Amino acid sequence: MTMATNRIFQGDDGQWYFHVRGNQAAGPYGSQQDAGRALADHVRSCQRRTTLTVPWPREWTPSRLLRRAVSAPRHT
Length: 76
Fold this sequence. Notes:
By secondary structure, this protein is α+β, with helices and mostly antiparallel strands.
């Protein structure tokens, strides 16, 4: 997994941090390697969240929704 090296930086306090979305800093970490591992873990957890699939309830399947809408009585 390749990551931008400019995401990891050393703060004024000598600790290591990495940037996440919104230019927020995550940390502190004792070493640059620790910050790199934490960044890799963060990216993996974000990827898992984006690939998470939640099954639709059976009642919400498009074919049932269309069938219900077509077969519903029309009120005039």
